[in-house]
Amino acid sequence: MKKNPLIPFAWTAVIGFILIIGVSFWAMQQGGEEEASGGKEGQKAEAAAPEEIYSQNCASCHGGDLGGQVGPALNAVGSKLSKDEILDIINNGKGSGMPAGLIQGEQAEAVAQWLSEKK
């Protein structure tokens, strides 16, 4: 009697499929725990890191080093504008190049504060 050579491959596929389903359920459960806690840990981390918020939302136009590209340089914006003026521009945009509301809430406050310290 000959053994079927596909049996080991079939078992490997079945075990892999079971592992994928198990890991998926585990990941969904982890996400549910974060939502149940209100996701506040992630918001605090984002609010505490204005440099990261800037790099994700603003650096494509204003440059990674605040030196400007498409948008104006922001490396000394704090000497020209107050925190409230910067926050107003973040929230409402400016001209046709700066869109309104790219970042909002606590993140916008944190970035405005951080930029106002650039003098």
Q: How would you describe the overall organization of this protein?
A:
The chain is mostly helical. The chain has a domain of 74 residues: Orthogonal Bundle (Cytochrome Bc1 Complex, Chain D, domain 2), CATH 1.10.760. The chain is 61% helix and 0% strand. The chain has six helices and no strands. Helix 2 runs parallel beside helix 6. It is elongated, with a radius of gyration of 24 Å.
Task: Detail the topology: elements first, then pairings.
Elements: H1 7-36, H2 40-48, H3 50-57, H4 59-62, H5 83-92, H6 105-116
Give me the count of strands. 0
Largest sheet: none
Question: Rough shape?
Answer: elongated
CATH topology of the domain at 43-116: Cytochrome Bc1 Complex, Chain D, domain 2
**How much helix, percentage-wise, in residues?**
55-70%
Number of helices: 6
Residue windows where pLDDT falls under 50 for at least 5 positions: none
- CATH domain class name of the domain at 43-116: Mainly Alpha
